[in-house]
Each structure stands twice: as structure tokens, then as C-alpha cells.
Amino acid sequence: MMATSDNVTGTKLALLEAASTLFAEKGFEVVSVREITGLAKANVASVKYHFGSREGLIDAVVVRMAKPVNDERMRRIDALEERGGATVRDLLVAFFEPLFSQIQSSPLSEKLFVKLMGRVVGDRPYEFPDEVMGQFREVAGRFVPAFMVTCPGLTAEDVFWRIHFSFGVLSNTLTHGELVKKISAGKVGDEKLTITLKRVIDFCEAGFQQ
């Protein structure tokens, strides 16, 4: 049994929110069921009852985060196609901005949700749940041809690799953004997510057009 983002309440919601907080802080691999249920003030058996297993709970956290992002991506690509004449930057904004919008609307603190989103994008050592993989394939089925139109000469394989590299930029930015501040010795400070998003898009736009 897998939770989604729709109408989740009570113990199930408490488990999802506790798991999200702990996964963001520590990563998916090291957090135990007992830690999650302790933070959620639930009994250990509740994880099996609501999600089937610890892995089922991880999948539910990922689905809960990914679905609204992918739904918004599809809405935006619909709008771009209806308008016509989309640029590489338009497509990158439509692809990346929903992630940042989800971060800003999360009940978690912005800092925690940024870390959790980064881990979802890049830290999981096993495959995404089928529901999320299906969403990604649907999104790719719309965005890859659109990028090929805006970048004549690129094959579908080229575009998939460039999206993959762009995900790497995003994942590192979300998961390890604090590191660059420490290394820079004060030259890099705190900034709004909108500014960070612009930096990511500027970099990826140049890569796509190379």
C-alpha cells in the first residue's frame, strides 16, 4: 500500500512527515524505522500497516514529492506548446522551476526540503518507484522532442544526456549548496532560491547550446 499526496491524514501523514525530515537530515540509507516512528509518535507496526515496509515508506515519500512537480511540468509544457516558439531557456525554466516551487510550498523548512529534494534527485541507490518512473517517462516524452526542436542537430540521445547532466548540477546544488559557502570563505553567501535557480538555468542553458 503506497501513500500519495492526496488526502493523507493521521498516522500516515505523521509517518510521511517524520520520514521526510529524517531522510533530509541523514539520507535514505541510515534512518531506521524506529527513528521514524519515534519522531512520528507512532508504533513500529504502523509502518508495515500503512506502507508495507521501510522501502514502501521511502517510495511514498518520493511519490509525494515528485507527483506535483511532474504534474506542473506537464502543465507548463502544454502552455509552451500552445504558445509556440519556445526557447531552450523556456524549456529549462518549465523543467526546473516546479522543483523550486515545491520546495517553497513544503511544510518542511526550506533548508530541510532543499536537502530532501537533492537526495531524491541524486542520492537514492536503487530505482525510483514505478509510479514515479512512469511520470518521468511521460515528462521525457514531451520535453525531449521539444529540446530537439530548439536545438537542431541534437539527437534524442544527446538530449537525454544533457538532461542527465543538468540533473547532476541540480542535485549537487540542492544537496551540497552549503559546501560552496564554506569553501569560498565568505565570497559566497546565503541567497534566495530564485537567484540560485537562475544560476542553475544559466549554466545548463549554455551546456544545452554547446
Give an account of the 3D structure:
This protein has 210 residues and is mainly α. The protein has a domain at 65-209: Tetracycline Repressor, domain 2 (Orthogonal Bundle). Helix content is 76%, strand content 0%. It is built from nine helices and no strands. α1 packs across α2 and α1 crosses α6 (110-122).
Report the span from N to C terminus. 45 Å
Indicate the mean pLDDT. Answer: 87
Please state roughly what percent of the residues sit in beta strands, choosing from under 5%, 5-15%, 15-25%, 25-35%, 35-45% or over 45%: under 5%
Q: Please report the first level of CATH classification, the CATH class of the domain at 65-209.
A: Mainly Alpha
Whole-number radius of gyration? 18 Å
Number of extended strands: 0
- What pattern of helices and strands is seen along the backbone? HHHHHHHHH
* Overall morphology: globular
- The CATH architecture of the domain at 65-209 can be given as Orthogonal Bundle
Please estimate the helix content: over 70%
The major sheet is characterized as: none
Please identify which CATH superfamily of the domain at 65-209 we are dealing with: Tetracycline Repressor, domain 2
- Annotated CATH topology of the domain at 65-209: Tetracycline Repressor, domain 2
* Quaternary form: single chain
Q: Structural class of the secondary elements?
A: mainly alpha
Spans of at least 5 consecutive residues whose pLDDT stays below 50 are: 1-7
Helix count equals 9
